Amino acid sequence: MIAAFAPATVSNVAAGFDVLGFALDEPGDVVVARLADAPGVVISEIRGDGGRLSRDPAKNTAGAAARALLARLGTSQGIDLQVHKGLPLASGVGSSGASAVAAVVAVNELLGRPASLEQVCEAAMAGEMAGCGAVHPDNVAPSLYGGFVLARSIDPPDIVRLPVPAGLACAVLHPHQEVQTGAARALLGDAVPLATAVRQWANLGALVSALHSGDLDLLSRALVDHVAEPKRAGLVPGFALVKAAALTAGALGCSLSGSGPSIFALTRTLDAAHAVGQAMASAFGQASTVGADLWVSPVGRTGARVIDLAGIR
Amino acid sequence: MIAAFAPATVSNVAAGFDVLGFALDEPGDVVVARLADAPGVVISEIRGDGGRLSRDPAKNTAGAAARALLARLGTSQGIDLQVHKGLPLASGVGSSGASAVAAVVAVNELLGRPASLEQVCEAAMAGEMAGCGAVHPDNVAPSLYGGFVLARSIDPPDIVRLPVPAGLACAVLHPHQEVQTGAARALLGDAVPLATAVRQWANLGALVSALHSGDLDLLSRALVDHVAEPKRAGLVPGFALVKAAALTAGALGCSLSGSGPSIFALTRTLDAAHAVGQAMASAFGQASTVGADLWVSPVGRTGARVIDLAGIR
Fold this sequence. Notes:
Two copies of one chain form a homodimer.
Chain A: E1 2-11, E2 20-36, E3 40-47, H1 61-73, E4 78-84, H2 95-110, H3 117-132, H4 137-145, E5 148-153, E6 158-162, E7 169-175, H5 181-186, E8 191-193, H6 194-213, H7 216-222, H8 229-232, H9 239-248, E9 253-256, E10 263-267, H10 270-287, E11 292-298, E12 305-307
Parallel strand pairs in A: 3-4
Antiparallel strand pairs in A: 1-2, 1-12, 2-4, 2-5, 5-6, 7-10, 7-11, 9-10
């Protein structure tokens, strides 16, 4: 039996709609894989999903990703999976992708690591596509590799790993509501004004440069989303107040994580992330009667990893 | 008397429409500045423009830029300018910006360098705006600073200088036709499909990362323009054949320079740029009866500079 952990991820990252993401250290999902006698993939157990996820491996991102990896390897080895959801569903922190990543990392380890990291990544993306009807490389890739990742292309996959400036940390506020990614996407429409698109790619280019150079002042100026946030902010009551509180408390930037409802803020240090997170939680508490989780973490450099089975509750 | 040279620039650079540019070493424009008794800016001579540029300093980018710098410095010092156009008009290599940059660099030097580089840059942009009705920071900034430059924002200016990978060189083919930037811009329309915009900023992010990391394979994959080139290529007869010839000859990428008609190709070495340039010129010669210039240069790291007056023909 092998257990693998895959962390939550923040995708879009303001200017990087659909192409940029980064990993947290925690929280995340755990998948336990073991060899089974019958060929194919079986999901014998899912915990932490409130019974909402399908146990059919074709309709579950963990199961579908494991199947994609086995197909890629050309093996008929049977695999049993247990999925321990540490991430809430439809929360905007890459929950479906993390399950897919944890599954393929666990299965690959169980089989003696026959697949390259690139093959593991492709299987996880194929699994997310099969299991939930859409692929989010800006969630899947950072959950696997850690750090910041730019998905230049999905087909064929062209994944660019970016440096993480020293100290960079993150606070994520997760309001207890759900946002369906498909509905959030429909809000965006099919076209963007050219002038808006130019501003967005100017900011993304600057953001990528800032990650390389470690210029956190530039990073802060570039953490602006002209495309998705203006149209989606209304999905998350209290967003504007939370963002204002984060910036006032010293965040480098603050925006929706993925399609929301989670809200992330980047900070220069982990201490600052704790302070900013408290300010965000306090502002949200005043603006909404809905509960919320607060996660504070360095930007996770490690990504998915095999873990000790004893660490699983 | 002080003379300053400002080099030609390639803007847009495939994925970086309106925000990314780089400098050549040569060719470029030269402006000679000297003190004059009467307050204000006078353009006493322009060479190399075929008599087409206005001598009215308010309607000439060199004159307007010099006026903007003097206004910024709060001086009523009189200045006389001679403009030596080394760059053809409406050619897509930043001709109007180069004159503005050369003028402000010469004037600033003449006055003992009272203005910072940032102030010089702002004056050059103001001059281009006043002199030709539009500002192209992705031409002006690389012509001044050298290397690759990303214009994150124009107002206020936020200019990000990017590293130049060792050896990177360029061939520019300049067909003897003119493309008016305004007409080329009108071809683009006001909106871009969201999916196209996402592909464009994915490529721009990868391109910026490749410049930092020196990954020229990634640079090559990222040198793709989904926004402007497909709509503008028809302005330049023979473009498709020239591009195909450049890529076959080993170019990392090839696209329109600015809004054309010039066509640029980036290469790993200066030798490769010579070979690619010859292939481009040969293909153009077979496709068109129009003449063309070929410029081959390293990516220019120096940008605008004060030069010896003896070097001016």
